[in-house]
Amino acid sequence: MQPTIRFDEIGLWSEVKLAILRDYATEYSKILSAQRNPRLRHVYIDAFAGAGIHLSRASREFVPGSPLNALAVEPPFSEYHLIDIDSAKTEQLREMIGERPDVVVHQGDCNRILLEKVFPRVEYRQYARALCILDPYGLHLQWSVIEAAGQTNAMDIFLNFPVADMNRNVLWQNPDGVDRGDLRRMTDFWGDESWRKIAYSTEGNLFGIEEKVSNEEVAEAFRKRLHEVAGFQRVPDPMPMRNSKGAIIYYLFFASQKDTAEKIVRHIFKKYGSSGGGR
After folding, report:
1. Which pLDDT tens digit goes with each residue over 61-117?
2. Residue 137 host element (H or E)
3. Per CATH, is 9-162+230-276 categorized as 3.40.50.150?
4. Alpha-carbon distance 195 to 179, whole Å?
5. DSSP structure class, residue 234
6. By three-state DSSP, how is residue 226 classified?
7. Helices (H), the chain
8. Distance between CA atoms of 211 and 204, rounded to whole angstroms?
9. Which member of 60, 124, 190, 251 has the lowest number of beta carbons within 10 Å of its beta carbon?
10. CA-to-CA separations, 246 to 62, 213, 270, in angstroms, rounded
């Protein structure tokens, strides 16, 4: 198939992420499809679905994206909701998938679409469950979505915590010069301005000057927030995704209400841990 749009190029870390999502989606669908008393309707949600196919930076070959991987899972999910703000990408998705009554492709801002159209379809009391992929291109996700997912008590999520975007645009050594729009994006992602106290510390500085804390400390604070504020009962340590030079591009978080889900993800993270860093 000849591409009708320019596909995103992805590095090794993204290929590893796609493998992690594929492996978990497979196990998740097996478990929920086998549930009989009561029967459960399980939904796949991809908030930044893209065009469905990527171009590998390493091999120069086309790589199926998370939506196509999810659609290939057996047994299948009950329904699929694929979202992207880029109309060219959603048109490409529709072209590749064709007419399927179990697939809905949404074009627009996922922060609105998830809260207004998709999450209301996943009600715990109606025996609905969901696997939700929140893989923003940067600080383009709002905390209200993350918290709403946790409050359903019915969703497992994978979340891209874009620490490279944070460091490049917000978490400067001297934050006074940061653009107000970037500060607002950070606050929207975090949910409030508590990140300001977390990201900077005077500890260890003889002159009492605030300095930026490590990426690990920022990520750990967010992990606790997923548990304590969003209400996810199981939030294992995230997997750092590194580029070919070893720099952390983002942390891949997983959050769930179920102990079994956490055990599966820990196993998958361990399986791919040596390759996910691009080392």
Report:
1. 889 999 999 999 999 999 999 999 999 999 999 999 999 999 999 999 999 999 999
2. none
3. yes
4. 16
5. B
6. helix
7. 12-33, 66-71, 87-97, 110-113, 143-151, 163-169, 180-190, 195-199, 215-228, 259-276
8. 9
9. 60
10. 24, 19, 18
